[in-house]
Amino acid sequence: MTLERNVARLFRLNDENWMKHANPWSVWTRYSVLPLIVLAFWSRIWIGWWCLIPGIASLLWLFLNPVFFRKARSTRNWASKAVLGERVYLNRDRVDIPGIHKTPLYAILNAISSVGMGIAIWAVVTYSVWGAVLGVALAYLGKSWYLDRMVWLYEMMKSEHPEYRGWDY
Description:
- It contains 10 helices and no strands.
- It has helices at residues 3-10, 15-21, 24-30, 33-42, 44-47, 52-68, 78-90, 105-126, 129-158, 162-165.
- Helix 3 runs antiparallel to helix 6, helix 4 (33-42) packs antiparallel against helix 6 and helix 8 packs antiparallel against helix 9.
């Protein structure tokens, strides 16, 4: 079982919920989560422990977002294809993916995102504005590049597998 499959299970991504998460609104509003979390916990300097309310709300949004929206009207857009590519990638233990997608690039991009998250956390703890900007930017750079590769993977795989082709509408 892939790590991605375990993460999908944590976010309750079954067949129906994957298609909800493929809604572009889900993808683009999910980009709001990291800055909201940083701002929420940064606000402890102004509002003290009350910062936990927006902090917890932001974390709750992180978990509710993938199932909050309706099924996408169309999956023929970059955001939907990125989510569907993630679904294809997590399924790689059952359906083989092309060799070009078996490179360490995905691990590197996830590492860049993780380093960005670490810097953002450090910045919140130390109140470093530049650290927060750098951390969020690195996290989004890695994640966006990763999602772009997922679009490419989905485009390659949907032509070969009827199940994946069925997600294209």
